[in-house]
Amino acid sequence: MSGYAVVIERAEDGGYGVWSPDLPGCVALGDTPAEAVEEMRAAIRLHVELLQERGEPVPEPTAVGVDMVAAA
Predict the structure, then answer these.
(1) Does residue 19 belong to any structural domain of this protein?
(2) Among 11, 48, 60, 67, which residue's beta carbon has the most beta carbons within 10 A?
(3) Are the C-beta atoms of residues 43 and 26 closer than 8 Å to each other?
(4) 69 burial type by CB count under 10 A (0-12 exposed, 13-18 middle, 19+ buried)
(5) CATH for 19
């Protein structure tokens, strides 16, 4: 399986959420960024398995560029 780009966001409660633009509805949470990413790995595996079981297409990972934008 190829790698999917993920977005890590800090939650208001201090935890972290992770989601992938290529896999709508596939999300994970964790107390730290590393924990959230590890949970996302498991979520992606399960998400892909479910799509395959249903006979639905599995999205291909897309190339993503990353930019940091600072607010003035």
Answers:
(1) yes
(2) 48
(3) yes
(4) exposed
(5) 3.30.160.250
Q: Domain count for the chain, please give it.
A: 1
* pLDDT band for position 72 (cuts 50, 70, 90): low
Name the residue range of residue 26's domain: 7-53
pLDDT, tens digit, 9 for 90 and up, residues 21-42: 999 999 999 999 999 999 999 9
Q: Does 1 fall in a domain?
A: no
For the chain, the distance separating the N- and C-terminal CA atoms, rounded to the nearest angstrom, is: 40
Does any domain span residue 45? yes
Which residues are paired to 16 by β-bridges? 10, 30
Beta bridge partners of 18: 8, 28
